[in-house]
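Reviewer comment 2.1 asked that we show a complete input and output for one of the modelled complexes. We chose the adenosine-5'-diphosphate case, as it is the one discussed in the main text.
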Amino acid sequence: MKIAIMSRNKNLYSTRRMVEAGEAAGHEMRVVDTLRCYMSMKSNDPEIHYRGEILDDFDAVIPRIGASITFYGAAVLRQFEMMGVFPINESVAITRSRDKLRSLQLLARKGVGLPVTGFANAPDDIPDLISMVGGAPLVIKLLEGTQGIGVVLAETRKAAESVIEAFMGLSANIMVQEYIKEAGGADIRCFVVDGKVVAAMKRQAKEGEFRSNLHRGGSAALIRITPEERATAVNAARIMGLNVAGVDILRSNRGPLVMEVNSSPGLEGIEAATGKDVAGLIIKFIEQNARPNRTATKGTRG
Ligand code: ADP
Ligand code: MG
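Response of the prediction step:
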C-alpha cells in the first residue's frame, strides 16, 4: 500500500516509527509536511498539491496534526478524505477531540466517568461555578491547551477566583474542574487501536508537580490496568469516533475518570515504557481496514 503520513517533521520519533513499521511490512511510506499541502476545490475532482506536485493514489493517510495547526491540518485531512483516501482517524473525530469541553460533553452524555467540570462566561458567575465543581482545590484548564501548558491548580477559593477572573479578562476559553487529589499526580495513558487497549502506561508527575505530562518532567512506567479501566478507555475512544487514541484516565475513589482523549498520541513514551511495537499495530489496523472511499463519519453526534 501507499501510505501518507501528515507530519511537520520526519525526524520526530512517532513519525520515524510509523515509516519504519510501514516499510517493514512492505508498504510505501511518504511523509508530507502538513503545512505545505495545498488544495483545490473543484466539482468532483478534489486535489492536494505538494511543492508543485499532485499527491494522488494514496491508499491511507496517518494524520499527526500538532495542536497549533489543528485548523489547517483538519482541512488537509478532510481533503484526503474527499479524495477517498482512508484516514486512521477522521478529521471530524480529530476536531472533536481537540476541544476538551466538547469532548467532555460527549463523554458525559454517554455516562463515562469524568472529573466534575464547569464552564462559564460571566465573571459574576465565578463563585457559583467554583461551588458547582465542589470548591477549592480545583483545576483550571485552557480548552485548547496541550502538554500540560494551560493547566493550573488553584489551592484556595481566593486563588481560583482571581485566576478564573484573569483568564476571563483575557477572553481565554477555560473550564474549571474538580481536582482529583487521590490520583497523586499520576494518570494512566491507555493507547487504543481499533477498539482494544494495546498498551498502557502510568505517568507520574515529578516531585512538587501535579501534572503528569512527560513534557512537564513526568516519568512513565508499565502498568496493569483493571478491566473497568480497559472498558472505560475503549468506550471513550469509540464515543469520540477515534480508531487510534490515547485515553488519559485518573484513578479516583469513585473509579476511573477520563481526563482527555488524544487523537495523535505520541509513540515514544508508550513504546519505551511497554516495549510494544505500537507503530506496527497501527500499520496492521490500516492493512485490515483501508479501502477506498471508506470515510464515514463515526462516533457520537456532536
Ligand atoms: P493537557 O492536554 O495539557 O495534557 P490535561 O487535561 O491532560 O491537559 O492535564 C495535564 C495533567 O494535569 C494531567 O495529565 C494530570 O496529571 C493533571 N490533571 C489534569 N486534570 C486533573 C484533575 N482534574 N485532577 C488531578 N489532576 C489533573
Ligand atoms: Mg494530557
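The pocket of magnesium ion (ligand 2) is lined by residues 213, 248, 260 (CB under 6 Å). We note this here for comparison with the apo prediction described in Section 3.2.
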